[in-house]
């Protein structure tokens, strides 16, 4: 993009620097405010990366093999279509980030509203409604930039609601920007403080009565459980798309010659993309294909992904 050839290295260095700054800020903030709810949520939105290989498998998110990545033969990591990059440790900036502008907007609206107004009577709904467009905007700007610069691709998308469908940099706009807020919204809502100064996460922890003598630990457990469930919901949404075989538009041409073409359902071969092909892991029952990848007859004319159209 823009004729610049070193986006991968730039983004990786940026993430390392950013995470180093965040860790330093965490150390200082933790000393001043031990186990603050925002700090705990930041840890939670970082720890959910254990699910990330699954969340790459479900939406056909294929990372550039040239990225610095975890060992490919690790059992969970191997679920990713190609590699699992180190940079997912920066998820705190992505999933927790929308909370800060959203809570600022909510406080501004509340300051100008009557106490019997909707924003005061239903602050959690209002906060969720604000995080939704904020999160969608942030996600669209970030992901479309990363996809356009070759950081990763969505190898298959639903044609409807996707940007640049059929291009290498296609992006499932409606599907991804909406479903990614499945994590952003609860992350923000759990941090909302009522007029008693307690967060939603704190109140839920008290209701569950887990670790009654360690309220901070109880709050962390509640956050961890709910955010992981939310992330699972995101993955389930894309898994349904995979199971129904509605993601028929492939990113063409395949941009990573050092990796086999990830084609678990045969759509790349159907469109004429030359192999060799990879089906990855979970390509049978988990993909609603008990007998594995279906047999495909390549198009006689080469197809839109054939060498003549590359």
TrEMBL record:
The keyword Transmembrane applies. The chain crosses the membrane at residues 6-29, 83-106, 118-138, 173-192, 217-241. Residues 300-310 have a biased composition (Gly residues). Pfam families: AveC_like. Residues 291-310 are annotated as: Disordered. Keywords: Membrane, Transmembrane, Transmembrane helix. The keyword ATP-binding does not apply. InterPro entries: AveC-like. This is Putative membrane protein.
